[in-house]
Amino acid sequence: MLFKDEQQFAEHLRGKELLNMYFLFGEESYLKQQYLAKLVSMAVSKDLAMFNLHKFDGKVSMDELSDVVYSFPVMAERRCVVVTDLDVEKLSASETEKLMELASTAPESCVLIFVTDLIEVNLKKSTKYKKLVEKMGRKGGAIELAKRDGAKLAQFMRQEAAKLKCTISADNCRYLIERCTDNMEVLKGEIRKLSEFCLQNGRDEITREDITECCAQTPDSSIYDITKAISRGNYNDAIKCLDELLYNRVEPVVIMATLSGFYIDLYRAKVANLSGKNVSDIVKTFSYGNRAFVVDKAFRESASYSEQSLADSIEVLRKGDEMLKGSRVEDSIILQQTLTRLFACRKRG
Description:
Strand order of the largest sheet: 2-3-4-1-5
CATH topology of the largest domain: Rossmann fold
Helix content: 55-70%
Radius of gyration: 25 Å
Number of helices: 17
CATH architecture of the largest domain: 3-Layer(aba) Sandwich
């Protein structure tokens, strides 16, 4: 079976009745590791793990895997077998056949878990992975653990802060995501750092100022600050952000490409708004997935522009990208010229 979402999967685990097989995949590494640890702890006791827990990488042969899966557990009801990054698409025909047979006949005395780490899986495009899930049938379950959206990430951060006797507002959670990342493992570390900083200073609430002081911006966040400065007509701030990025050795082509992506988001938001569409319409149409917060920001910032000024800006960025890749002019000068032209586009709007 394919669990429809993380909530359904979590409810299944609360039921305490394990299936014989699981397939964990998706973008969010933190969730995959958390649920893997949960499954392993439910399948085997710690004192017998050295006998009944077996871990393999994706290079394991199906014969070797079958031997372990079908062997009897030691002084326990079942054993647990974990296979990380088995690239089903690259298996030979004979190995694929053996895997599908194992998926449909795995014994009740074993919990077999497949989990991806470096491999990307898309069930809609991959015939072999889709067939694997089908073969698992009622014996097993698959769950795609995608990145959480802004609201769920905020809930996660507030829970982590509460564990450390601190609080953080929903607005400051969003600010932390925008400044740093939507990676849960990184956010967990940032919350721990911020909580310790607050407690050392006799406070228990994480503020926006704490985040600005303690948490380094990612390149994407710094580049986004350029677009915010332009939308506010602040040329000096935009140039200052650019200089900091270049000082930190962020590649000029990365800066240009990320700027272009932000302006495309702005243009989509502007057109959608003029057409009576909302954030959810854009997220669905352009497959933003759980990155709705990006579109939400674009809707706010696009109010500073006309539709034509954004179209002109995208053309400026296209030409700037061409110059970076084919001109002898210094990269920093091309980027500065591009920012100046983006300001001119905004003023014309």
